[in-house]
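Glutamine--tRNA ligase
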Amino acid sequence: MASEDKSLNFIEQIIEEDLKSGLSQTKLHFRFPPEPNGYLHIGHASSIALNFGLGIDYQSPVNLRFDDTNPEKEEQEFVDAIKKDVEWLGYTWAEERYASDYFQQLYDWAVLLIKKDKAYVDSQSSEDMAIQKGTPSTVGTDSPFRNRSVEENLDLFERMKNGEFEAGTHILRAKIDMKSTNMLMRDPIMYRILHRHHHRTGDDWKIYPMYDWAHGQSDYLEEISHSFCTLEFLPHRELYDWFLDQILEDNKLRPKQREFARRNLSHTVVSKRKLQQLVKEKHVNGWDDPRMSTISGLRRRGYTAASLRNFANTIGIAKRDNLINVSVLEFCIREDLNKIAPRVMAVLDPIKLVITNYPEGKEEWLEAENNQEDENAGFRKVPFSRELYIEREDFLEDAPAKYFRLTLGKEVRLKNAYIIKGESVIKDSEGNITEIHVTYDTDSLSGSGTEASQRKVSGTLHWVSISHAVEAEVRLYDRLFTDEAPDSYKEKNFLDFVNPNSLEIVKGFVEPSLATAQNEDKFQFQRLGYFTVDKDSTPSKLVFNKTVGLKDAWEEKGKKEENSINNSLKEINKYFKVESKPERIAIESAIGENIKNVTSFSLIQNSLKKNINNNKASLLFAQFILKYSNWKSPDFEEDDIKKLYSMSLKSESTYVRSKALLNLRDLENESLRNQYDDEILKLYSNPPKNVSDREKDILSEMVKI
């Protein structure tokens, strides 16, 4: 049984209730049923963790069953990738099964349904069938082929199987109820003709079962006790049960389908179709691109199996769909890598630092701790010399008072080494700094116990000895999409939100201990983040992928943008109070700049929606959004835009009306702009008492247009 020292989720509660109702624990049997038409993604990881986790908790078998019923989209490559991902996540399946294992049995049962007059061959076109099926608000009508004789149906179905007909000529449908409120029960398709080679059965079959016919029957044949699906399959449950009713034997276990919510991840897409589009259109470099939400992509980026399992456990199982912030996933990998990743030094934007009072030709091998979080990680030696690389951003020639890195005349510590003091710089002909010259305190070596070594300084810098440095290609990955929900907007294509800065490739230098690093080895580059060796790495060319930063830069950015919007809303009230036009222009300019700097479409869209109300300040702010944001009217929901313009043109404020008129004037959508011709003419012919000269000018211009 499930562990009693934790609260049970609703899936575990279902199982516990079944056990109390008489189901033997020896009959518990679960499955993970992927379709091999793409690579598994982070959403599948949660489903894998659920099903295999139940198998572990209840000491019950879990099958890996491939839903390979559509040879148009399925390939052996995807089968192999799925098996590899499940194994890598740390799970072992009891049996490897395929829906294609049951093609003959499914066919035989379909023949049985035809003989019972519960299935028939339909010869309508797909267009006619769509009309005949009705809509959710109107009942369907019977197919003209619904009452074919059993003999004719048996003959046609066998000829379909033998390949006598072209694809689309006939289908086999279950005969259920064309008036059902559940559209899936209106004589659903059981088989379609496909003259396609199957990756397992070859060319043996010319017809292939639909998912709904194959899934429940496969569960039944494998004696699966609980078939867990995501919420979009809830309407399928009635059909799942109807099909089982037609073939169930009294002495056999009846599978039970139950649904849980899909856990969507922000700043990603998890639709296989959209992931495939990203690959085919080369927005990414394959299914395992480290920016992809696929398990193979996450693994290549540096995510560990433990971090993905922990993520699945952290977000849990729910009954309602929810958007999980990707920062939760990033927290899980930081937490894991913090425990296991050795700390090393790397410089990604190098500038040369020369210790002028350090003897030329001298080198020291200094002791450095591998991981302070792991007492068994030990220490390593790192080389130190007169000439080093440090990060360019770690030096400022003219620094503010609270600058805690290296500058002229101030001291900082070099990690695991000495305290240094900035003395001078060398510049090229264009004034760019090419070298920083410093002096070091000879008695200040870290860990030496001297008084100088214990002196407090403003900061600590990482570094790499130039003569010992190993060059490396470093791929700095960021989130693939700039918006948290890129595929959730009616008016937008998810590709519009692809982050143009999701990958930056730089040449960096790492300490020599990394020269022999192998594929998937993981490190913390001190002060920079966590990095893993990429599969493209070779002995002569190291390649590292950035897994995640030490801090959540996006969270900080998001808070900054939210504050920018909130502060702008506070400032906008001043717009109505100032007396002069230059003051209003200054306020608008500042607010416009704030809006322009917001990169989150969801934040902008929500701000627009919230400010479509009768408050003049709100309406003016919404009009500013249309004018200054990186998105324009066509990007937002049309109903919101229409409502905003209607309310703005009726506003009591001439400033609101004027901004609305200017935005309308600049609209590229002529049909939308023309919808307000009558209101503009009305304002022009019968202007409000508080109409300004500016508003009159705009109206005159627009009426002439």
